[in-house]
């Protein structure tokens, strides 16, 4: 068992939350709040700790936020009918460090000189601490520990007059990853950061436009997919229709490749690719790269299933459900604290002994982060009588932290940052351990090869090549934001 140190929190902000989120917005629908609740339900895998909906109608904003699942909090006629108005945005969030506080539940709302503005954010900003210190010095009072609140304050102090101009002004000062939905008295706005790290799609149901993190949130309400919001694009939906602007300097698109590997729902189509098909293709590549002789391919459910199907199909080795998952337990990662996380793995999976006993097993999972899941699963499969246990992972080794909204621990807690692959195999207790190569991964997502100069995706968790500056991490030495702010003083 690895002796992992506890999570580190930032000294400036010790109840800092790492966010993984889903967002939804709808304009001009008589059942806007009910549709938003349904959309968020479809996006529940992106965030299970809290949910919130803000609606607006006749100049009145209404909001309901709660800790817990969408289905537990947006299930009554009362809640839905109090969220009146034809325009709405919603948010699901998931945090793994610090306390989960109601004041950190989104969408975040504030009153401005131009009226109310609510924002829901998926992603993480990387110059939050720097901007926050500056804003606090100039008198801004923060109500939460969310990076998203920075955007609210930057909008408040912007000297531009229209909401969209003020939002653009604010976003030009932030770094990192953001897909946003925003709600004003008369519009719903969608934004994707210039690299398009996190997803955001546009759809339509009847005459109403929808914005959502993933297409599965369109499917649930019978909406048609129109297109992805483009990296660096702002879409403004109001009574006049839909208006698109691209106010940021163009940069190469760097969609998060981990969305395909693990995070997004397999039935979603993101950046023109069905997530399930990509996962299967990764499994096929993995089987070609590993060439292991075995009796069966067993997925670690549920995240390993599509890659294991691809692996089995390409290798001709039978696919078997050698591990059964208890669906009434949340994702292992949710539990804050290593102790509970360890226990969580036992609660979640059980070996299907009758299938595994006396067999050479290839286990397929999507990723190894701390190694907790793999160690438990390997033990469990051996205890059930497998004669050989090989572990194949449908991502390259996760050796770097993500600062863009996928919660990964600090580098020292990442197994692959601390050990060689052989050492990992030994620690996990498997006969062999194989990760897909970065080139194999790029092939599986439809690229001939990875462009080394300027990769087509954000793959920083595997390569350390971060597409944006990491001002907070680098000690807040990037002062460009400070000068921008003081120019307005
Ligand atoms: P670990 O047990 O720490 O090695 O975590 C690996 C498992 O967690 C894998 O089986 C993944 O399915 C899952 N996983 C990987 N990354 C994340 C994430 N950012 N959030 C939640 N679960 C994750």
Task: Using brief descriptors, characterize the structure shown.
489 residues; alpha+beta; Rossmann fold; 2 domains; 7-stranded antiparallel sheet; 6-stranded antiparallel sheet; 23 strands; disordered C terminus; binds adenosine monophosphate
The total number of structural domains is: 2
CATH topology (fold) name of the largest domain: Glutamine Phosphoribosylpyrophosphate, subunit 1, domain 1
Q: What is the CATH class of the largest domain?
A: Alpha Beta
What is the helical fraction, as a range of percent? Answer: 25-40%
What is the arithmetic mean of pLDDT? 90
Number of strands: 23
Biggest sheet architecture: 7 strands, antiparallel
Structural class call reads alpha+beta
Our count of helices gives: 18
Strand order of the largest sheet: 3-2-4-1-10-9-11
Oligomer: single chain
> Which band does the percent of strand residues land in?
15-25%
Residue windows where pLDDT falls under 50 for at least 5 positions: 1-18, 478-489
Classified in CATH, the superfamily of the largest domain is Aminohydrolase, N-terminal nucleophile (Ntn) domain
């Amino acid at each position: 068992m690895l002796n992992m140190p506890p999570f580190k929190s930032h000294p400036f902000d010790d109840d800092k939350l790492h966010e993984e989120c889903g967002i939804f917005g709808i304009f001009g629908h008589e059942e806007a709040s009910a549709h938003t609740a349904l959309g968020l339900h479809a996006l529940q895998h992106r965030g299970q700790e809290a949910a919130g909906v803000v609606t607006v109608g006749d100049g009145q904003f209404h909001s309901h936020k709660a800790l817990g699942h969408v289905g537990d909090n947006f299930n009554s006629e009362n809640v839905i009918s109090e969220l009146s108005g034809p325009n709405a945005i919603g948010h699901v969030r998931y945090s793994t460090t610090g306390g989960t506080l109601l004041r950190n539940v989104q969408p975040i709302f504030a009153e401005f000189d131009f009226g109310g503005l609510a924002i829901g954010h998926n992603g993480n900003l990387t110059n939050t601490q720097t901007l926050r210190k500056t804003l606090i010095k100039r008198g801004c009072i923060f109500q939460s520990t969310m990076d998203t609140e920075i955007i609210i304050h930057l909008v408040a102090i912007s000297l531009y007059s229209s909401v969209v101009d003020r939002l653009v002004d604010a976003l030009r000062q932030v770094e990192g990853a953001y897909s946003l939905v925003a709600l004003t008295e008369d519009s719903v706005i969608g934004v994707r950061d210039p690299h398009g790290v996190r997803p955001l799609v546009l759809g339509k149901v009847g005459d109403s436009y929808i914005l959502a993190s993933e297409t599965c949130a369109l499917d649930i309400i019978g909406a048609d997919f129109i297109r992805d919001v483009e990296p660096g694009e702002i879409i403004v939906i109001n009574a006049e229709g839909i208006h698109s602007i691209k106010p940021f300097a163009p940069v190469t698109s760097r969609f998060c490749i981990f969305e395909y590997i693990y995070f997004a729902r397999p039935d979603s189509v993101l950046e023109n690719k069905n997530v399930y098909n990509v996962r299967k293709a990764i499994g096929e590549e993995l089987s070609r790269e590993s060439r292991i002789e075995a009796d069966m391919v067993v997925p670690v459910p549920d995240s390993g299933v599509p890659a294991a199907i691809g692996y089995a199909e390409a290798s001709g080795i039978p696919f078997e459900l050698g591990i059964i998952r208890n669906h009434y337990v949340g994702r292992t990662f949710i539990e804050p604290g290593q102790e509970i996380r360890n226990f969580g793995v036992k609660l979640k999976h059980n070996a299907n002994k009758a299938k595994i006993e006396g067999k050479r097993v290839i286990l397929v999972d999507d990723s190894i982060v701390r190694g907790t899941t793999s160690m438990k699963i390997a033990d469990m499969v051996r205890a059930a009588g497998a004669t050989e246990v090989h572990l194949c992972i449908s991502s390259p080794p996760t050796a770097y932290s993500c600062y863009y909204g996928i919660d990964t621990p600090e580098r020292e807690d990442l197994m692959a940052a601390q050990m060689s692959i052989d050492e990992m195999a030994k620690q996990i207790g498997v006969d062999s351990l194989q990760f897909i190569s970065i080139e194999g991964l790029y092939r599986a997502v439809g690229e001939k090869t990875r462009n080394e100069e300027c990769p087509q995706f954000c793959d920083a968790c595997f390569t350390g090549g971060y597409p944006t500056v990491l001002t907070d991490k680098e000690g807040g030495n990037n002062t460009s934001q400070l000068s921008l702010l003081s120019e307005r003083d």
